[in-house]
Automatic annotation (TrEMBL), chains A, B:
Reactions catalysed: orotidine 5'-phosphate + H(+) = UMP + CO2
Protein name (database record): Orotidine 5'-phosphate decarboxylase
GO molecular function: orotidine-5'-phosphate decarboxylase activity
SMART domains named among the record's database cross-references: OMPdecase
HAMAP family: OMPdecase_type2
C-alpha cells in the first residue's frame, strides 16, 4: 500500500483512526464463548461496526500468541476478513539479527500478508533492513512510546543534547523512505510530537495513547499533522471494550464515530 | 530454575554451552524432508547428540513462526523432548507495554514452560517487569548485541560518558535480581565484556557471537567468567549445520565436544 492510498482512505472516511484488535478471551462478551472461535467472531463484529470509521487495523501479536497455535489461525482468519483497502499492522515489536529479522519479515509480510509491522530499534540497521525489502510493505519503528517506561532509555540525552528517540529518528530515516517507514510516537506530550516533526516532517506517525493512555487528539493533530495527514491514531480498549454486553458492536461503533468526528474536525483545520 | 541449579549443570558437564535450535527447513538435511515433522526430527537428533555437552538450548522464535501455526506445535514438541534439567531459552526479543508483556510472559512461561525469554529493553521497566513476576523464570535482557547494528544506538554515550548499553545494565539491574535476570552480551569485543562485568559482576551473561559472529571463547572467559561461571555461550549454525548429510547428528556432536573441551579448560583456569 502506498502513502497516497492510505491518504485516499483518510480522505474518503474523514478519519485517521486505527483500531487495535487486541482481544482478550477473558474480557470479550460472555455470550461469544459458545462460538466455535469466540475471538474471531468478536473481531468480525468489531470490524463490521468500525469499518466506516477506521482506515487501519492493528492486531497486537501477544494477544494471539497467548492463545497458542490456534491463536495464529484466528489471526489469519481475521486478516482475510479485513477489506483489502484497509491498512493492516502487525503490532509485533520484533527486531533481531539480520537473518532472523528476514524470517520474521517473511512470516508477517508473505505468509500473513500484513501491510506493516512494528519493529524495535535497539539492535540497529541490520535488524530493521530486512523488513524494508518488501515492495509496498512498511516498517513502523518504535521511536517514542507512550508507556511509563519510555522515560527509562528513550529520553536519555547524548553528548549533543539529543534524546535517544531523536537519534533513532535521525539515523533510521536514512534506512528507508517515506514510502516504507513510519514511526510510533506516543501522544502523551504535544511538544514531543513537535520535536519529532522537525526530524521527520513527511513520514506517517502511528500514535498510540490517545484515550486510555491519556493523550489529546487536538494536541496530536496540532503538532503532528502534515499535508497528507501523516497520522494514524490508534484506539484499542476504548473501542473494543466499549460494552461487555451483547451490544458490544454498537457500542464500539458509537466510540469509533466519536473519534472519527473529532478527527474530521482536525483534518478540516490542518489538512484541507 | 535457580542459578545454583544452572551452575550444577555447568560443573557436571564441564561446559557452559548453549545450543541455538534455529532450524531452517531449507538448510536441514534433505533426507529429513520425508519425515512427518522434519524440523522436530532434526531438533531431536541435534538434542540427542549434544545433550552431554549442552547445559542450555535456545530456540529462536522466528524460525518457528516462519513455519506458521504448525511451527509452534513443533516448538512445543521440542520443548517437551528436552530433559527437565536443561535450561531452556525462548529467544523471542519481546518487549511491549505492561499488559501486553504480561501476555507474552504467560505464553512463554506458562503455556510453553520455557525457563527464560530474551527481552528488548527499549520500552523500559514496565515492559520488562511482567516477565519478572514468575517464580524460577528468567528475563535475559538485550544489553550489547553482537551484530553490526549494535553500533547504531547501543554505544551512544550519554552526558556522563556512559554508553546506552551500560545505562541499560545499570538501570535494569534494580528491576530484578541475579536470580531472575541475565543479560545478552555479544562476544565481539573482550573489553566490552570487562566493562559489563564492572556493572553486573554476579549476573549470568548469555553470549552469542562466538564462532559464526567472530568472538573468541578465551577472551569471553577471561573477561566474563565469575566464581559461578556466570556465562552461557551460544552456538547455533556452527553446531546444527556442521554437516548437511545423514551424519549431521554426529557432526554436531563433534563440534559440541570441541567447544565443551575448550570450555572445560577455561572453567579450570577461572572457576575452579
Amino acid at each position: 500500500m502506498t502513502s497516497q492510498e492510505i491518504f485516499a482512505q483518510i480522505q474518503k472516511k474523514s478519519s485517521f483512526l486505527c483500531v487495535g484488535l487486541d482481544p482478550d478471551i477473558q474480557r470479550i462478551p460472555k455470550h461469544l464463548l459458545k462460538e466455535e472461535d469466540p475471538v474471531f467472531t468478536f473481531n468480525k463484529v468489531i470490524i463490521d461496526h468500525t469499518i466506516d470509521q477506521a482506515v487501519a487495523y492493528k492486531p497486537n501479536l501477544a494477544f494471539y500468541e497467548a492463545m497458542g497455535p490456534a491463536g495464529l489461525e484466528t489471526l489469519a482468519k481475521t486478516l482475510e476478513y479485513l477489506p483489502k483497502d484497509t491498512f493492516t499492522i502487525a503490532d509485533a515489536k520484533r527486531g533481531d539479527i539480520g537473518n532472523t529479522s528476514r524470517l520474521y519479515a517473511k512470516a508477517f509480510f508473505e505468509q500473513m500478508n500484513f501491510d506493516a509491522i512494528t519493529v524495535a530499534p535497539y539492535m540497529g540497521e541490520d535488524s530493521v533492513g530486512p523488513f524494508l525489502e518488501f515492495d509496498g510493505k512498511w516498517v513502523i519503528l518504535l521511536a517514542l512510546t507512550s508507556n511509563q517506561g519510555s522515560k527509562d532509555f528513550q529520553v536519555i540525552k547524548n553528548q549533543s543534547n539529543q534524546p535517544l528517540y531523536a537519534s533513532v529518528l535521525e539515523k533510521s530515516k536514512a534506512w528507508g523512505t517515506t514510502e516504507n517507514m513510519m514511526y510510533v510516537v506516543g501522544a502523551t506530550r504535544g511538544e514531543s510530537i513537535a520535536e519529532v516533526r522537525k526530524l521527520v516532517p513527511d513520514h506517517f506517525l502511528l500514535v498510540p495513547g490517545v484515550g486510555a493512555q491519556g493523550g489529546s487528539l487536538e494536541e496530536v493533530a496540532k503538532f503532528g499533522m502534515n499535508n497528507q495527514c501523516g497520522l494514524l491514531v490508534n484506539s484499542s480498549r476504548g473501542i473494543i471494550y466499549a460494552s461487555s454486553g451483547e451490544d458490544f458492536g454498537k457500542a464500539a461503533k458509537k466510540e469509533a464515530i466519536l473519534l472519527q468526528e473529532a478527527m474530521a474536525q482536525q483534518l478540516n483545520i490542518y489538512c484541507k
